[in-house]
């Protein structure tokens, strides 16, 4: 008999066998969902089309002009449920935030054994200027019951659940993409309708998305259509099953939240097409890059040219006015003939630092293992 | 002794062993150079950021404003060598062409055994409106020696060689990306400085690129900085070594030129995150997509719901005013419960049709094997 259940086409997460090459399924995800080409770290704000993209299901079609056009609904434990059009949202006082966003799965494909999912190396990052309405403004307009003062109240709202328009199946569970945030929400959380001064591109969430500065990308719900204020913690798939740090399948795990620190080097010199080994001349080589953390400013970037045996401090630019944007760093390396591995390591003000050994977990999240760039000097 | 030659980091092309999974090198290329998410086939003109991208080396930095700013140089067998600024090019009479562009390596990773290079599946395509100056206009201004009438003249120019600003190593050969076209050039070949009404994005060739409608992407030299008119055929790496259809390494091969026909289906229903199997309900399902060929209009698109055993004709929109843009097609499929494989096949006016068996060649070029979309109907 023909098997026709979702479970036949949508299987649980798995970890690849030792030495197992990347599968066609993983390749298809890599081809759809792209990273930032590392030379593009040179731009303070990532040009359109170069910012990393992750779409779990498909980019949905959203109609903002027809008779049944898109509205943002705000409901649940609120005094005044709302149905806001794009024009109404745009009419509210707006804020622009420069935010560095990273996918929680960045680094996953460098883990051994490799969790089989979106196979990022180090490039799942981007920085954009997001314009929109502070979420707090809209929640205040709706009048969240008992959330404003953060008081503990068994009858009051404890979380806001955000539903996107993208629909699909994942690990056997049919769903709309949905995530929650605890109340009260940070002042910096935005309902964003513009990216780098223009309307959101389709792949970045048109017409509206959540932006949660300092958190990994899964929190920044795209194609946002509904906010529901709930009096119980949300336990949907993307909150309780996915995006958890686990060692074994039965482990409830710890939730993925803020972005762990990372520094990336703009690969110096010029590359080999296939291997991406960098070619430089002997002598002084300017090394530059970016560093960021969701926990606080990056206070130290160390660079090694001997694959981690010795380190020197780079100069790190202060955060400046953009609290949530990456910080530039630079140093000079004197290259000598031969093969070298450049490594960079960020530390933030809270003392979090990048590991030199892989921080393995079953979902492949938060792998901020130091980047390693192979260089040939001749 | 430490090996420090380019040949150690930049090895010849190879073909993967049977059953060999995708390597980390191939994955790195997939993460940098992305394809069109197939749901985005719904847009007549591909939104910025969704058009496929291939960058052989790095996106170069090009300065168009400083004292030593970028110029397009036109030299070699011309009467009047030129150095044109972006402003001068923009001042010439402009043309806009809607062009469907595809990477010559599209389909490569579906070949068995798999040539090891940029590992495309079917998504390396995009359609854009390119604005610029016809190449013929600039060549006429420079006064190509003996090319205008196409006369055979041993002393005259026979080709135009196009040099980009991107520099790297490929299969052991250090180079600027460089390709040629035979003279006389087609009237439709453009020196394009705008894409979809705006300046070229960095990854699409800012400030100027060649657009050769109907040819695969390797011909559309990006970050164009020089045109040289030569009296001997160009035999550089990207012309004589890469982009050749070969069966064995020593085969001189046939050059890759015009785009072979292809139809793509917008995957129906909704997807499973990992497997990309599509889920649909029983009953009528609208199937839509795009089809194109560099040899002429697509005259037939056939659709099979039983993995190629039986076929029906879809309705194909005519080419219309956009001679080089893809054509829309559609049909209705009556889905019944169970697993199905949808396949689509294009045929053009010249009689070229997509193969049902893989057209293997060592470089993995022009693999226009029919797309196969797995569907679960429940």
TrEMBL record, chains A, B:
<dbReference type="InterPro" id="IPR008335">
    <property type="entry name" value="Mopterin_OxRdtase_euk"/>
</dbReference>
<dbReference type="InterPro" id="IPR036374">
    <property type="entry name" value="OxRdtase_Mopterin-bd_sf"/>
</dbReference>
<keyword id="KW-0560">Oxidoreductase</keyword>
<protein>
    <submittedName>
        <fullName>Sulfite oxidase</fullName>
    </submittedName>
</protein>
<feature type="domain" description="Moybdenum cofactor oxidoreductase dimerisation">
    <location>
        <begin position="282"/>
        <end position="375"/>
    </location>
</feature>
<keyword id="KW-0479">Metal-binding</keyword>
<dbReference type="InterPro" id="IPR005066">
    <property type="entry name" value="MoCF_OxRdtse_dimer"/>
</dbReference>
<keyword id="KW-0500">Molybdenum</keyword>
<dbReference type="InterPro" id="IPR000572">
    <property type="entry name" value="OxRdtase_Mopterin-bd_dom"/>
</dbReference>
<dbReference type="Pfam" id="PF03404">
    <property type="entry name" value="Mo-co_dimer"/>
</dbReference>
<feature type="domain" description="Oxidoreductase molybdopterin-binding">
    <location>
        <begin position="58"/>
        <end position="237"/>
    </location>
</feature>
<dbReference type="Pfam" id="PF00174">
    <property type="entry name" value="Oxidored_molyb"/>
</dbReference>
<dbReference type="InterPro" id="IPR014756">
    <property type="entry name" value="Ig_E-set"/>
</dbReference>
């Amino acid at each position: 008999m023909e098997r026709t259940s979702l479970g036949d086409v949508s299987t649980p997460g798995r970890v690849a066998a030792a030495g197992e090459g990347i599968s066609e399924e993983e390749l298809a995800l890599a081809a759809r969902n792209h990273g930032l080409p590392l030379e593009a770290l040179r731009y303070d704000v990532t040009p359109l089309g170069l910012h990393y993209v992750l779409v779990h299901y498909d980019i949905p079609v959203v109609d903002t002009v027809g008779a049944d056009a898109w509205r943002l609904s705000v409901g649940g434990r609120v005094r005044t449920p709302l149905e806001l059009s794009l024009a109404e949202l745009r009419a509210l006082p707006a804020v622009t935030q420069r935010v560095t966003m990273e996918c929680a799965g960045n680094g996953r494909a460098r883990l051994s054994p490799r969790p089989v999912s979106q196979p990022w190396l180090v490039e799942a990052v981007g920085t954009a200027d997001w314009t929109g309405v502070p979420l707090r403004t809209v929640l205040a307009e709706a009048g969240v019951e008992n959330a404003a003062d953060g008081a503990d109240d068994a009858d009051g709202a404890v979380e806001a659940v955000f539903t996107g328009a993208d629909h699909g199946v994942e690990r056997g569970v049919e769903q709309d993409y949905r995530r929650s945030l605890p109340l009260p929400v940070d002042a910096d959380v935005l309902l964003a309708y513009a990216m780098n001064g223009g309307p959101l591109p389709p792949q970045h969430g048109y017409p509206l998305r959540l932006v949660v500065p300092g958190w990994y990308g899964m929190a920044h719900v795209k194609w946002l259509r509904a906010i529901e204020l709930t009096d119980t913690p949300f336990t949907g798939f993307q909150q309780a099953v996915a995006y958890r740090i686990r060692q074994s399948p039965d482990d409830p795990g710890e939730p993925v939240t803020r972005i762990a620190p990372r520094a990336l080097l703009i690969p110096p010199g010029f590359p080999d097409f296939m291997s991406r080994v960098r070619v430089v001349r002997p002598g002084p080589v300017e090394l530059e890059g970016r560093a960021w953390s969701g926990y606080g400013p990056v206070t130290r970037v160390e660079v090694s040219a001997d694959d981690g045996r010795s380190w020197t401090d780079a100069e790190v630019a202060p955060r400046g006015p953009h609290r949530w944007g990456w910080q530039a760093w630079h140093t000079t390396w004197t290259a000598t003939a031969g093969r070298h591995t450049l490594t960079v390591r960020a530390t933030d003000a809270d003392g979090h630092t990048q590991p030199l050994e892989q921080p393995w977990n079953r979902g492949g999240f938060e792998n901020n293992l130091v980047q390693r760039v192979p260089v040939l000097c001749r």
